[in-house]
Amino acid sequence: MRLLPGRILARATALPAIAVSAWLLVAFPLLALGVFTPLPAVVLGVPAVVAACVWIPRLIPDPDEDVPWWPVAAVLLIAAVFAAVQIAFHAEALVIRRDPASYAMYTVWIAENGYLPIPQQRDLIAGDDPLLSYGSLAHYERGDVIWPQFMAGAPLLTSVGHWLGGLDGMLVTTPVLGALGVLSFAGLAARLVGARWAPLAALLLAVCLPQQWVSRFTYSEPVTQILLLGGLVLVYDALARRTRLGDRWSRAHTLAAVAGLALGLALVVRIDAIRDLLPVVGFAGLMLVARRGQALPLLGGLAVGVGMGLYAGYGLSRPYLEYLSDSLHPLLLISAAVIAVTAAATAFLWRRGLPRTDRVRWLPAAVAALALLAMAGFAVRPLLWPDHGHGSDFTDNWVAYVQQVEGLPVESSRTYYDMSLYWVGWYVGMGTVLFASLGVAMVLYRLAKRQDPQWLLPAMFFVWTVATTLLRPAITPDHPWASRRLIVLVIPAFILFAVWFTAWLTRYCAAPGRGAASPFPARALAASVAVAAGVSMVVPAAATSHAGTGYRQDVGTVAATEELCAALPEDSSVIVVDPGMAGNYMPLLRNVCGVPTAALDDATQENVDRIVDAVHDRDRTAVLASEEWGQLAELTDGSVEVTAPFHVSAQMDPSTLMKPPTGHWRFTGNVWIAVLRDPR
To answer: Which residues of the chain have pLDDT under 70?
Structure first.
């Protein structure tokens, strides 16, 4: 088999979604059965991933265009450099303050134990004493167990890093996943815009701050990116060959099933992927009306992935879904309505066929104009419709604090959702936003004329997600934290449409008689336009990224955690007597150090003595923990040494509301302990 550059680019950019899907297809059932340990995972998961990565890429068709080697080398180099830089700058977020450490604690628990839920181990502390609590930030106490927050998908992947390299291995896994997300996006750009434009698209995504930022933490966004963008890549490849309903099973059917599975498995990673997948349902209905043979395999794969995702949510993360019920339940109702409407519309159009939008002369221009009007509406929204109402006192207080830090008028109810389009502009440049607006208008215009059918699902997918996300990002609005909501699909959508417009403009300038009298000046003009447009997009994105990513967050936390765990006797039962510390550090003590841990809600001397005696009655060593030396010194009356095995003073991300993040804040963390052995 010849190593053609186009073939290598097509297959390499599809591999991340294939590998991740194969791993989740094996790993998630193991976790659900409570046997997600290295031996069965390696015995079953590694062959599945290897087989999928060897067999499925062979089904991917070669590109129609003649692809030179340089785009292949450039894309692979960009992904490799991205991974190296993010590994060098990876964060050590283990103390729960926001979501990254929550995912890290989830990973550590399942990597070391292989099952959920987490036992409270009350019998190793003080039984059912009513003053003891076991829940904490991102860990829900239910009955006699604890359920971690979030979905299982990302921890199932970062667990591999933990098995290979402990805490450090876990923390450098996500930078690799982020690089694979860049590679997947390059593959989508190569298919929809052209292989020669894939490096520009990959570079824009790689240099933007949110892509770098989420890849330095144990966030779920890079995995979701791989599955959704990679799923679109596989759908494109599946539809490259035309098949009809009733045709014998072929490569196209297999690729369609794999594509549906990859898209559906995004739900195992993030529950809000339900919203992103709704256009796929409508697209499958259109495929059925068009009698495309890939429709049913696509729906079948999607159903399997979504089914696993729903079990991941309601079987392993139910308290988290209960917490999200105010937004999740309406989304489920909307999803049911979309499925019902799609089924009815498919039945109605079954004999009539697809509408001939190209015969309505005014429709393509109207669709394009509507897209531009929508973007203009998002641009003027802050002036006309400033958004208010978090629905959370905690968020109100935090926004008020950040407003004071930033010197803004204190309006704690401001959500800043009306600024969402400008958030995108911060990170990819307003030039990219402008090019993308023109690009999406032109793509929709061509689709309404029934041209470029390969763009139909990506356009449905991106337009729906961009519109719904920009309308209501539904996230605490301080940055860089809020940029998480943009990075999976919104920023890639803007980059993709902007690069498509740049490619179209370049071809337009290079066409004979367009802007020049002879071929050479036309080519020179086209090259100048391409370079100028690329620079206008890359430079602003790189400038924002350079100002906001030149540091590592929480450095020293891994070493401090190891020192803390080493300082705890093997038979420890830890009682956290500092209520301010309990939510942040209890998962660290329980999940990483592996010791039974509870918080004492009322740490009076009498209550502490009673709990310590109960621990001693169980032939265990009581350990008091607090962020304050004075509290432990007072409770122990100086009878034991109070030490601080955990001490971290490090840089952390800032919070901004009306400008992109720059510089850093400070994080200081201390855990003081007093080891109380049984004197009897």
So the answer is: 1-2, 512-520, 680
Q: If you search the block for the tokens 């739900």, which residue do you land on? A: 267
| Same-domain check for residues 196 and 303 | no
Is there a single domain that holds both residue 259 and residue 347? yes
Contact 287, 294 (CB under 8 A): yes
291: exposed, middle or buried (C-beta count within 10 Å: 0-12, 13-18, 19+)? middle
Q: Exposed, middle or buried: residue 1 (CB in 10 Å: 0-12, 13-18, 19+)?
A: exposed
Q: Label the pairing between strands 132-133 and 118-119.
A: unpaired
Asked if 408 and 286 sit in the same domain, the reply is no
Q: Which of 489, 520, 548 is the last residue of a domain?
A: 548
What's the structural domain count of the chain?
4
Q: How far apart are CA 668 and CA 195, in angstroms?
A: 47
Q: Which one, of 154, 165, 169, 176, lies nearest residue 86 by Cα?
A: 176
- 516 and 370 assigned to the same domain: yes
Q: What is the pLDDT of residue 580?
A: 84
Q: What range does the domain containing 613 cover?
A: 119-147+553-676
**Please, are residues 271 and 332 in contact by the beta-carbon 8 Å criterion?**
no
CB-CB contact of 236 with 276 (8 Å): no
Q: Which H or E element spans position 118?
A: strand 118-119
Please spell the DSSP secondary structure of 618-671, one letter per residue: TT-EEEEEES-HHHHHHHHTTSS-EEEEEEEEEEE---BSSS---S-EEEEEEE
Question: How much is the pLDDT for 515?
Answer: 46
Q: Tell me the C-alpha to C-alpha distance, in Å, between residue 188 and each of 181, 289, 447, 477.
A: 11, 25, 18, 30
Residue that is last in its domain, among 323, 354, 385? 354
